[in-house]
Amino acid sequence: MDAQEVTTSPWDGLNVCVAGLGVSGRAAARVLAARGARVTIVEARDDDEWRRHAADLTGRGVTVRLGDGEALPAGTGLVVTSPGWRPDAPLLAAAAAAGIEIVGEVELAWRLRPAEGAAPWLAITGTDGKTTVVRMLACMLAAAGHKALAVGNVGTPIVEAVTEPNDVLAVELSSYQLHWSSSLAPAAATVLNIAPDHLDWHGSMDAYVAAKAKIFAPGTVAVYNADDATSTALAETAEGVARRAGFTLRVPRPGELGVVEDLLVDRAFTADPAHEAAELAAVDDVRPFAPHNVANALAAAGLARAFGVPPEAVREGLRDFVPDPHRIQHVADVAGVTYINDSKATQPHAAAASLAAYEPVVWIAGGLLKGLDVDDLVRSCAGRLRGVVLMGRDRHRIAAALARHAPDVPVVDVADTDTGAMDRVVTEAAGLARPGDTVLLAPVGASFDMFANYPARGDAFIAAVERLAGDAR
Asked: What is the pTM of this model?
């Protein structure tokens, strides 16, 4: 994009400090430099990869400071921070103390939208399910003939997407991104669910919830989870929203989307919600099937319907949707036992939803619990457990919860952390399972104690199951 595309630019000559040289930071720097801003990126890391990125941006007129992530550049008028930077980071604290405005990439993108013809945003936040819902929604919008893009934590950086010609944007928003936002006003938005997460970043549960609440802005259609008390409360207390619509796994009341026998039904966005319902899809159209994924489909449908998408496009979009890997992913059936990879279940709320979809279960769990409590999770799922295989650094905390709440469930502790550890985990799980059971990797913890990330952990599980299947032939 060329600076001359904007006839009057408030960014021209503004000294902007971009905190972080990651994907969002690089995108923000490119767009701001093209609009005439004087951009300096600060990045604590300094290695060959970051030097390559720095060289590319330097050629675009951006100043890059590597190996220094704490000092605020002199003359800074605005700070654009990457999501991973905590509010108490020295550079951000210095900017706040100096009265310098701090925004995130998402807030910047909202301000960069064209004055006329800007694509409306349909926004998604919540503790779990965001990426699934944003991709389902994008499929529904495409099925209705709209030029739509999934952005935010997925796909194209949002600061670049707002400059492209689209009919509508499906926007995934994390609590980090919402924390640094102040003027967002999506056409419609949803809070999928709320459970403790990222409390080390936000400092408290109240602060985490407050960040999520920002998505229900004045003029926004608030699509809330009627089965989640916090989501419901946030919608009910949001000031100035255009309207409220709930989604539920129950039979829907007027003003809700829900489930009637084997159908997904809309009683919120019909001409007469009190007396009229629209059939959207069959429960079997939701893939992979699990109760929480049906809720995801209803949330996506609520946003789509708020935007005017017809019922037949909701169904077509669900059928076109291809689930991302490592989310309740069927891997194989071996000797009558089903193996499911939900490596993305990195905290108790996600693991509980995954465990609720299967019975009986041999549960593979462990990793980094990030200070989160697992007692309620273990208590709620104890009755469906055939056995448990534990791995990772914080496995002893899960073992202690199992001893308290499921003392009769067999538990195998795998202390290994080498590259063959997952093979031993899967072998132990197979030994506990019986035909008709499900072996479920829903770790409840982050992966960084043993793996590069949750996809690497999931890939290791898939490979181990495939080796097990080969041996069983």
From this structure: 0.86
